[in-house]
Structure formats: structure tokens, C-alpha cells
Amino acid sequence: MKKSLFSVFVTAFSLLSVTGFAQQTKQPNFIIILADDLGYGDLSSYGHPTIRTPNLDKMALEGTRFTQFYVAANVCSPSRAALLTGRLPIRNGVFGTNSANKVFFINSTSGLPKRETTLPKALKSKGYQTAIVGKWHLGSLPEFLPLNYGFDSYFGIPYSNDMGKESFRTGKDGKPILSTENPPLPLYRDSELLETEPDQDLLTKRFTAEVTDLINKNKNKPFFIYYASPFPHVPLHASPDFAGKSKRGLYGDVVEELDWSVGQILNKLKELKLDKNTFVVFLSDNGPWLMKSLIDEHGGSSGLLYEAKASTYEGGMRVPAIAWMPGTVKPQISSAIATSMDLYPTILKWAGAEAPANAPLDGNNIAEILTGKTDKVTDIVYYYDANNLYAIRKGAYKAHFRTNPSYSQKPAAEHNPPLLYNLEHDPSEKFEIGNKNPQVIEELTAAYKKHLESVVPVDAELDKREVRK
Question: 452: number of CA atoms within 13 Å, CB side?
């Protein structure tokens, strides 16, 4: 009898071990949720007093909430290119040369250079199903749409939601001023034009349904979903279920519906028992559109950070970021320095895929930060505006070699010696301390020059027809 019970125990233990091993070795799924123009201070878990974001707050409690997470650019096209390539815009070719051409417009004749190995393209080598839902903004001509960059499916708009008939400008009634110049905003299904001027009030619900359907469809296969919401970029739109509900007004309505959207996605993963095998990241593409906050309260908040979108101050490039994968990603508030480019090598490592050998990455594998094994992988951040390096951070200190307010029409101010701030003490960049720290200035200046020497001008590498003019 004892022998029989022992045999049963051994058999059961063996089955559990095999099952556990199978779960651990199953290829993980990946979902990146990218908000558009969401500010560092716009979520309740990041300190907003009236915008309610219970789903993102729960995601933050169950995962890693970053307090020092950066994007690679202060506006959306170069930021998105860096996210999908793991490379600074100055290296991948999507950077512009001035304020008028930092992003793609409806009449742009090029897109993300074809030589770049995007994250979905790299994951395809390991059998992943790949999809993009929402805003692309890396080229709108047919040859520059997502299916040419490793995505199996595409449901969304090719550029910002204010580049159709609805302008980012609003009238006295608070409604968007209609454009007489732009063509209607296109909504694509794969490579086919599905609609023009879709009802933007319903876009968040439609895109959310698409993401949950994709999860359901691919539940037995490894998948990568890039959900790039067009909101809370202006013009602001919320469905009837959310319109007029937030104490923060229309902007709060839009953010709260985005929070609902995230909740629907996480709940679907839990329902299908995919939550412990799916790495989900939520972040913003850049800081909030401060100008819209000043004019009609349609822009977001940088919280305690200074300035906003289109600047290289903290408010332009430090963003809210939450990573989630129960059982793998540690529940923690992390002050580690990390960037959106780190997602590329981290995801590839977890997928067992190889990074391109001929394209140096600017991102780092942050798996050990996410799992709580370390609180530091890198301490360097580069702050570019178009093709110019304005500032550099190393450890606690940030040096500004050039500064310019958000969307300023004036030339950037040059600083020699650079302005110096201790971001660990002063994230609002209020107190300049360069005269007290000449050694730090010297170290950061050397790091600044070393980086510039490492950057090969992209025009020398690429066919100029592929570089955005």
C-alpha cells in the first residue's frame, strides 16, 4: 500500500513538474499599449487628483510602475520609430531637422526606412502573430504602411487624428474647427481603406474590441500586439459612456475611457488564462501638449515635471510607464532609469529572438529590473530635438547644452558651460547647480562629446529617398 501511494505521489509530482516546465517554456505573448500625448501627471497613480484610472492603478499595483522612464523623442513619429527599432531616431532615420518636419504629415513622401528591423519583424522569425491597432504615424503612402514592416494585420489610422477634417484647433464652442485643406481621415483594415472620417467618439471602443478579438483569435499561438491609441491627442473624443463623466472635463473623459480600454484587455487575458504568459506595457509617446492646456484645457499635465511635448525638459520626454506580467514582473515602484528603446531587446530576449547584427541598439535588456533582481541597467539618457542633442543625463545629473520651450519659434539658447540639474533632488529642474559642481559638468560634457562621435550621420548610410525631408 505504501509503495502504491509512493508511486502515485511520484507520478503526480512528475506530471506537475512537466506541466510547470511547459508553462515556463511556452513562448510569452507581448502587448504594448501606447497613449498619445499623455502627460506624466495624468494618471491617478502618478498623482492626478481628479482623473480616475482604476485599471491602470491596479496594473501598477500588480506590476512595475516606473518613475524615471523616458522616450527617445519629444514628439510622436521619432518616438514611435525608436520604440519599434530600439534605436535612437538619429540612427533609424526618423528625426527631422527642424520644428516643421519632426513628424510625418499627410503629404510626406517617405516613412520609416525599410532597412530597419522592427520589433514585429524580428518576432516573426520565432513564429509570432503580429498586429497593430490604432495610430501608425511612420509613413502614410502604401509602401510605408504597417504590413511592410512585419505586421500581419493593421486596423487603424495612418497619422494623428487631427490630420483629417477635424483640426487640433477649437472654436469658441469648444468643438474642433473643420479643415478645408486636409483630405478626410482614413481608417485602414490591413492595406485597404475601410472608411473615411470615422466617428472618433467610438474609436477607443472599436480599437479595444479589435485588441480583445486578436487576443481571442491567437490564444493558442504566440502573439505581439501594438495598440497605439490616438488619444488623448487632440481633437479629444469620448464615447457616450464616458463623455461628461470626469471631474477633469473632456480631457479626463478621454483618459478615463483609455483606462477602461486597458482594463478590458487585462481582463480578457485573465479570462483566457493568458495573464501569466503575457507581458503588457503601458506608456505614452511623449509629454502632454502644453499649448492645448493653456488655450482650452484640452491638453494634459506634466505633474511636477517642467515643460512638455516638443521640449527636451523632463516634461517632454519622461513619461508614465507601467509593466505587467503576474508571476514574472515584480510588483514594485521602480526609480530605475529606463527608456522605451529598452523594450526592444527585452522582448526579443524573452521571445528567444535575435537582435539585428548590423544595427547597433540604443536600448538595454531591462528584464532584471522588471523581475526585481537589480535597480540599475543604465544611467544614461540622451535628449534629442530633431537631429540635435540638447541634453544628456548621467545618473542623478542632467546637463542642458541647448534649451528651448515647447513649440517655441525662437532659436534654441546655447549654454556653455551647460546648465546642470540634480534630477534626483530636483525633477522640476528649478535649481541650476553648475557653479557648485564643475567636475560633474566636465564628466557630462565628455559623455556628450563621446556620444556625438559614435553617431554616424544617417544621410551617409541611407538612400535620401528614404530619409524624411
Answer: 15
Bridge-partner residues for 195, per DSSP?
Answer: 187
Spatial separation of the C-alpha atoms in residues 325 and 328, rounded to whole Å: 6
| DSSP structural state of residue 353 | P
As to burial, measured by CB atoms within 10 angstroms (0-12 exposed, 13-18 middle, 19+ buried), residue 219 is: middle
Contacts of 338 (CB under 8 A, 6+ apart): 66, 68, 69, 70, 321, 364, 366, 369, 377, 378
115's CB contacts (< 8 A; 6+ apart) are: 359, 462, 466
Q: What is the CA radius of gyration of the chain?
A: 22
Distance between CA atoms of residues 419 and 402, nearest Å: 9
* Coil/strand/helix, residue 462: coil
pLDDT per position as a tens digit, 402-443? 999 999 989 999 999 999 999 999 999 999 999 999 999 999
Average pLDDT along the chain: 92
| Cα distance between residue 98 and residue 77, in whole Å | 14
Q: Of 391, 355, 395, give the one whose Cα is nearest residue 378.
A: 395
Asked if pLDDT for residue 173 goes beyond 80, the answer is no
C-alpha cell at 353: 529572438
Smallest Cα–Cα separation from 285: which of 300, 265, 306, 269? Answer: 300
Give the rounded percent of residues in the chain with a pLDDT score beyond 90: 84
Q: Which residues are catalytic?
A: 76, 137
CA distances in angstroms from 303 to 39, 308, 309, 456, listed in the order given: 8, 10, 13, 36
Cell of 102: 519632426
What spatial distance separates the first Cα and last Cα of the chain, rounded to whole Å? 81
CA distances for 351 relative to 6, 110, 368, angstroms: 38, 31, 15
Residue 382 burial class via C-beta count within 10 angstroms: exposed 0-12, middle 13-18, buried 19 and up: buried
What pLDDT score was predicted for residue 391? 98
Distance CA 197, CA 157 (A): 10
Confidence of residue 169 (pLDDT cuts 50, 70, 90): confident
pLDDT tens track for 243-295: 999 999 999 999 999 999 999 999 999 999 999 999 999 999 999 998 887 77
- Following DSSP, what letter does each residue of 421-443 receive, concatenated? EETTT-TT-----GGG-HHHHHH
